[in-house]
Amino acid sequence: MWNHTKRITAISLGWVSIAVFLALTVDVLLGVFSRKILGDQVRWTEELARFLLVWISFLGGAIAYLDDKHLGVDLLVDRMHPSARRVARIVTHGMVFAFALFVMGVGGTQLVIDRFDSGQVLPALLINKAWFYLAVPVSGYVISLFALGNVIYLLTGGHDIENAESSEEGVAS
Fold first, then answer.
1. Model confidence pLDDT, tens digit, residues 80-131
2. 121 pairs with which residues across the strands?
3. Can you tell me the distance from the alpha carbon of 142 to that of 59, in angstroms, rounded to the nearest whole number?
4. Which of 39, 87, 116, 139, by CA, is between 20 and 30 Å from 75?
5. First CA to last CA distance, the chain
6. For the CA atoms of the chain, what is the radius of gyration?
7. What does the alpha-carbon distance between residue 10 and residue 68 come to, in Å, rounded to a whole number?
8. Residue 116: CB partners within 8 Å, gap ≥ 6?
9. Confidence class of residue 79 from pLDDT cuts 50, 70 and 90?
10. What residues does each domain of the chain span?
11. Residue 59: phi, psi to the nearest 5?
12. What is the spatial distance between Cα 85 and Cα 108, in angstroms, rounded to a whole number?
């Protein structure tokens, strides 16, 4: 059930990321076309590209965590006894939970609130700068939710998360 929930969430975020990427591609092509062909770049294309790039980066980070494809050094952990590996994974997911919740989630939320309160506006897009920074707490809360879920899953006897997919694939073959 837990792996299914993660999979559905990752797929949903993947579709959102695809839409953001397509918008980014069209925006960059429009910017290049207007600069090279028309001689004057459309003013808002560069700012929108930056905005979309930030969003796709943070959404991609959340997807990477959900799919367990994030950056990590498992060389030592993979050589541990299975019970020690389980403890190491619980500690790791716990640390990810704390960072994502407090730094990205709570800190990012405070950043967004501060930007809304300040009234800062992106000059070309004419939208509040808080929308730019909203990617941080959104991805932080998604990551923290699933990190906590991973900890609970492992503590309640769930199989090693990294090995669960490979064992499921082995059964299907």
1. 898 888 999 999 999 999 999 999 999 999 999 999 999 999 999 999 999 9
2. 128
3. 9
4. 139
5. 21
6. 20
7. 10
8. 128, 130
9. confident
10. 2-172
11. -65, -40
12. 32
